[in-house]
Design a protein that fits this description.
mainly alpha, 217 residues
């Protein structure tokens, strides 16, 4: 059980960080950052801030793809083409499965942690499990950030190749998905996720190591 807690800690911290990044607040912070690339095809920052959260909302709600296909410009033209809609269906499936698995894993870990904390003899196992998990998380995030910073294209392409069918996730610069979420957006989202995960791992390490049990060895 202790090793299950250890190995689950990085997964749960990353998924929590991803969920925190998937918010309208993060979108506003990124779009309003000085130097963030403008849309070459005419979308203003305020239009991006209005349309992007709706796209994000689709990934988290129970609606079908008509939620996005019904989004239109003021002149009545559809915002997303067929390829974009198909990709967003794939993204929604991956997103919701990942979050569902994370919730299930969190429940399992909580039960195991409760079982370990009940006995004075096993409490040190839980403490060490959390300490190991936080250190594993920090090492993993450090490696990922190094790859993302120094070889972003490799990181970005590898991530998409793992989860999506080849050729379904590349779009024209004029497509709405790219206009709303340019590559710079994903770079900053990755760094934000990494930073939040590091903060979470640091908190787990501090809390787990704050009081050494008299039964610990």
């Amino acid at each position: 059980m202790a090793w299950c807690v250890t190995l689950s800690t990085p997964v749960l911290l990353v998924m929590l960080s991803v969920r925190l990044v998937m918010t309208p607040l993060f979108i506003q912070l990124v779009y309003n950052r000085p130097g963030f690339p403008a849309d070459f095809y005419g979308l203003t920052t305020q239009e991006r801030i209005r349309y992007a959260p709706r796209t994000l909302e689709y990934l988290l709600n129970a609606e079908d793809i008509t939620f996005l296909s019904n989004m239109r410009f003021p002149d009545g033209q559809s915002m997303f083409n067929a390829r974009e809609l198909h990709h967003m269906q794939d993204v929604k499936w991956v997103t919701q499965v990942a979050f569902a698995l994370a919730v299930g894993l969190a429940v399992v870990v909580a039960v195991m942690a409760a079982a370990l904390v009940r006995s004075k003899q096993t409490r040190p196992l839980l403490r060490r499990a959390l300490l190991r998990g936080s250190l594993f998380t920090l090492a993993m995030i450090f490696a990922i950030v190094v790859v993302a910073v120094f070889n972003w294209n490799f990181f970005f392409n590898t991530f998409h190749q793992l989860f999506f069918e080849s050729g379904t996730w590349r779009f024209e610069y004029s497509d709405m998905l790219i206009r709303l979420f340019p590559e710079q957006f994903w770079f900053e989202a990755a760094l934000a996720t990494g930073s939040l995960t590091v903060i979470g791992a640091g908190l787990v390490y501090i809390l787990a190591g704050r009081r050494k049990s008299e039964y610990d060895i």
